[in-house]
Design goal:
Layout: E1 6-12, E2 16-23, E3 31-39, E4 43-44, E5 47-48, H1 51-69, E6 75-80, E7 86-95, E8 101-102, H2 105-113, E9 125-137, E10 140-143, E11 150-151, E12 153-164, H3 165-177, E13 181-187, H4 188-196, H5 199-204, E14 206-211, E15 216-222, E16 225-232, H6 236-247, H7 251-261, E17 274-277, E18 286-289, H8 290-315, E19 325-328, H9 337-345, E20 349-351, H10 361-364, H11 370-382, H12 394-410
Parallel strand pairs: 1-6, 6-13, 14-19, 19-20
Antiparallel strand pairs: 1-2, 2-3, 4-5, 7-12, 8-11, 9-10, 9-12, 14-15, 15-16, 17-18
């Protein structure tokens, strides 16, 4: 892929692998050039369980995207949606001088790097992201760019996101087997937020809820910066499983029922509506009340939303969130989910579809495209040619990628 002109993002989820290729040339991009979308094999709840199957899914999604775009890719930004993703915030500081002095880029770098020392991670976890949230200059809080300001003391708050080392290494193996380089791993909620959350919402305080197949990913933004990142190990697949059990049908039939007639509320329904289910033995199809299907979907989605709220409440960032919550991901396509989320979360709710990329809006205006589109935007905003294809793992890799953030702040 021609560096500096094109960016590829690959969303490796539990139900789909989606490759997005966009032209990000100055004065042109970002513009969608092509995409590939195939069922995901070998992934469960965001983690690799079969390298060979993941490799086949990657190959098919990449091939589709290259054919539709006319561009060959050799590296891409990849999503991480492992159920073991967790986060915490850390503070660091440096002394600028005994007397007020102009803060330089060197002071900022030292302040941020001070938050990377002596990290207390759970065994088997490694850092994926260090995201500087905001700075404080001599007790002046919420400073976004302190370079050039006068002060004695510079403090920084950094959001640290970690994931399971085995999940990251296994994903790297699957990708490298295909002969592709990794520009960067980006946790799915950060990628989705690039495409569906506005700057105004980030400053007001907002929660992103990305309902995928195997997991539901969470990101909370306050005062313009990321405050909490987490994952709930439930998603659309659990709705399908509940339907299969409740209706006594195969998973494939349950998935079809969910996609064709599933809904989260009974608003606008008539009491006598039914769903026709094929029999296991090829006998007479069975008519099931639509309200029963709705009750099953509603119960599981409520459980997912309540689990999300419990995670956010435990983080201390549940309130206030004047920006409410943005629902995205394939699971957000269930009819009635916005209404149900308003009742369950008691927050303003909107459906998040990707923005900021020109091209086929029929493709882009889909919540299930949020992570794929967001990876392209993340690559355009945060990527740098000298970093392309040189991702590292663990603390060293995360520290090295801080350099990209420093360059962007200096622009």
């Amino acid at each position: 892929m021609g560096r500096g002109r094109y960016v590829a993002g690959i969303d490796v989820g539990s139900t789909k692998v989606c490759t997005v290729i966009a032209d990000v040339s100055e004065g042109v991009g970002p513009r969608l050039l092509g995409y590939g979308w195939v069922p995901s094999l070998g992934i469960q709840r965001g983690a690799v369980v079969d390298l060979e199957e993941v490799g086949r899914s990657l190959a098919d999604a990449i091939d589709q995207a290259e054919r539709s775009s006319g561009q060959k890719i050799d590296s891409a930004f990849f999503s991480i949606a492992d159920e073991h993703v967790s986060s915490f915030n850390r503070r660091g500081l440096v002394t600028v001088g005994a007397k007020p002095r102009a803060i330089t880029q060197s002071h900022v770098t030292r302040a941020v790097e001070s938050t990377t020392f002596a990290l207390d991670l759970e065994p088997g976890q490694e850092v994926i992201h260090f995201v500087p949230r905001s700075f404080c200059v001599d007790h002046r809080y919420h400073v976004q760019n302190p370079v050039g300001m006068q002060g004695n003391r510079l403090e920084v708050e950094t959001h640290v996101i970690s994931g399971a080392t085995t999940s990251i290494v296994n994903m790297m193996q699957a990708v490298h087997r295909h002969g592709l380089d990794i520009d960067e791993f980006v946790v799915s909620p950060l990628a989705a937020a690039e495409a569906v959350v506005t700057p105004e919402e980030r400053h007001a305080g907002v929660m992103l809820i990305d309902i995928g197949g195997g997991t539901t990913d969470i990101a909370v933004f306050t005062d313009g910066g990321i405050s909490f990142t987490g994952v709930v190990a439930m998603g659309g697949n659990q709705v399908t499983s509940d339907l299969a059990i409740g209706l006594r049908v195969p998973l494939s039939t349950a998935e079809q029922v969910k996609l064709q007639t599933g809904r989260c509320t009974d608003t606008g329904m008539h009491g006598d509506e039914t769903v026709v289910l094929p029999s296991f033995d090829g006998g007479v199809p069975e008519n099931v009340p639509l309200v029963f299907v709705t009750e099953i979907c509603q119960a599981r989605v409520e459980e997912i939303l309540e689990a999300v709220m419990d995670r956010v409440a435990a983080s201390g960032f549940a309130a206030p969130l004047p920006g409410g919550a943005v629902l995205t991901g394939g699971g957000a396509l269930l009819p009635g989910i916005v209404e149900l989320a308003r009742r369950t979360l008691d927050l303003p709710i909107r459906l998040g579809v990707p923005t900021g990329i020109a091209g086929s809006q029929e493709v882009l205006k889909n919540p299930a495209m949020a992570v794929g589109a967001g990876l392209v935007l993340w690559g355009m905003h945060n990527g740098h040619p000298e970093q392309r294809g040189r991702v590292g793992t663990g603390l060293h890799g995360a520290k090295r990628r801080l350099g990209t953030w420093f360059r962007q702040m200096a622009l």
